[in-house]
Amino acid sequence: MRHRGAQPKRGNVLRPHQYSTIEYMSGPSRKGPKRCLRCHKSIKQGEPWQRVTSPADPKYGSYVVGIHTNCSG
């Protein structure tokens, strides 16, 4: 077996740590948040919401939350 050096482990930094991303979505997604972080209501078909991805942390990785566009104030 050939040694490949240090391999990234699951949850390691996959993008620069200082950046977070915001994507504007509509309706529920198969993978991702099912409820709004602020109002805790489920994301329904055709409803606009924001998918916010946190900056990656070396120990815990990153996470994704969903926030309704009307709740984001």
Name the descriptors:
73 residues, mainly beta, elongated
Low-confidence stretches: 6-17
Largest sheet: 3 strands, antiparallel
Helical coverage, percent range: under 10%
Global mean pLDDT:
77
Specify the overall morphology: elongated
In DSSP terms (H or I, runs of 4 or more residues), the helix count works out at 0
Major sheet: arrangement of strands:
1-2-3
Order of helices and strands: EEE
Alpha-carbon distance between the termini?
55 Å
Q: Write down the Rg.
A: 16 Å
How many extended strands? 3
The proportion of strand residues reads: 15-25%
Derived from helix and strand composition plus strand pairing, the structural class reads: mainly beta
What does this 3D model show about the protein?
Strands 1-2-3 form a three-stranded antiparallel sheet, with no helix packed on it. It is an all-beta fold and 73 residues long. The chain has strands at 21-26, 48-53, 64-68. It has a domain at 25-68.
Explain the layout of strands and helices.
Layout: E1 21-26, E2 48-53, E3 64-68
Antiparallel strand pairs: 1-2, 2-3
Describe the structure concisely.
By secondary structure, the chain is an all-beta fold.
